[in-house]
Amino acid sequence: MEISARNGLKGKVESVKLGEVVASVKIKVDEPGMITAVITRESVEELGISEGDDVKAIIKATEIMVAK
Question: What residues contact 53, with CB distance under 8 A and at least 6 apart?
């Protein structure tokens, strides 16, 4: 699949917790180490996401905050 986004992190699914409507997917990446994506349960099921899968977390943001 080709995509225009350039903010992608390759990682491995550490865990998937299914809720009624959404799912929490923990993805182990090199930096910052672990990220959590909250996506629809339907997306998890349609993509067949499960623990141990190699995935790419694509980050879409309309703003970035910087703190010091």
Answer: 12, 13
- The domains of the chain, with CATH numbers, are 8-58 (2.40.50.100)
What was the pLDDT predicted at 32? 77
pLDDT digits (tens, 9 = 90+) for 4-52: 777 788 899 999 999 999 999 999 998 778 989 999 999 999 999 999 9
Ramachandran region of residue 52, left (φ > 0), alpha (ψ -120 to 50) or beta?
A: left
Residue 19 C-alpha from the chain's centroid: 16
